[in-house]
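Lecture notes, unit on binding sites. The following record was shown on slide 14. It pairs a sequence with iron/sulfur cluster.
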Amino acid sequence: MLKSYSMPNLGVYIQVPFCQTKCTYCNFHTGVVSADRFAPYVHSIRREITTARELFRAAGVHFPSGFDWQSLRRPTPSHDAVDTVYIGGGTPSLLDPALLTSLLHTIRDSFPCSWEEVTLEADPETIEPQKALHWVSAGINRISFGSQSFVDSELKAAGRLHRSADVYKAVPILRNGGIRNISFDLIAGLPKQTPDSWRHSLAETIALSPEHVSIYMMEIDEGSHLGLEVLQHGTRYSARELPSEEAVADFYELAQSELKAAGYEQYEISNWAKPGFASKHNLKYWRREPYLGFGAGAHSFSGKQRWANLHDAAAYVSAIAAGKPAIESVEPVTTEQAFEEEFFLGLRQLAGIDLSRIERQYGIDLNEKVGRLASNGMIERDGNVLRLAPAKLSVSNEVLVELLR
Ligand code: SF4
């Protein structure tokens, strides 16, 4: 019976890797495809979900002993199994709402569900009143909104399709449709961004009063058009108009103080929420709780293994159509990796991690190392709780490397 199953409830992630255009800074595996491909893709995800048990077994995925798949597959309301769903991308709000509804029905029919949080990622220009009503009736109760900036010249330079006016228009549509939980994404470090324009984007975000805000720092790598241009010293994509690293660090600190003053609590390196609105689904990633990912490029974690699906959407659809797993890699999580993840993932949360639990679980004494880093002001220790020092959040990776050395 699921009640004796000791792992926490599951999160389900659905990947929709389609967009209307490719943003210059985007390093995700997403593509611009004809809308004709949306329905077959969703059909494949539904099939992947309904045959997941067989596909996992064929790919060598084993759930830990104690995991009762039979109970999980039986749609019994008394068993809580899936409590969060996150439909991300890509731009899943491009899909016909009927396709999203069918996807959510399939999840509900395949797992016992007690949904607390069902998130849809949406781009502002794709929001329409009828869609919002459909989403709410399908069970979606949270919209994560790719606002990115409130300055049109920055949005244009980044290759975004929407403009700030689309955000102002979309928020009341979502509210009128019944969405009570909206998250905004902002990017610190966009080309053409200045201290004034960043302050403006923060102020407009706060004025629209979303329940949740994510701030991402611009990443420069060869995976995006802009990153590649910067690395090759080119000028396209406004590559010469990026703010400096120091300026971006200042943007982050300004966001911390402005959001705090507006009543948002920072609970993770990139995430702030009004009380009670921290993302339940995303917390599972940082707490190393299990989740199943479906769709091209989706990742999953059982506690003992991590596995990933094929990134290419066409290859994914073909594999599922042939009744084969679309899983391209399955990795056991070794004790050493699990130990590192406890820090790399756990310390992203401002609440910190339980040091004594980790010492017990992994049979290691960290007192000396923790004491040294605490005396350098890199981390803080409060009894058994270990957390990154607030001033070190924007350089967390350097601190973590030091801690695990
Ligand atoms: S909308 Fe998001 S996923 Fe799509 S290209 Fe832009 S940044 Fe990438």
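Take-home: The chain is about 40% helix and 20% strand.
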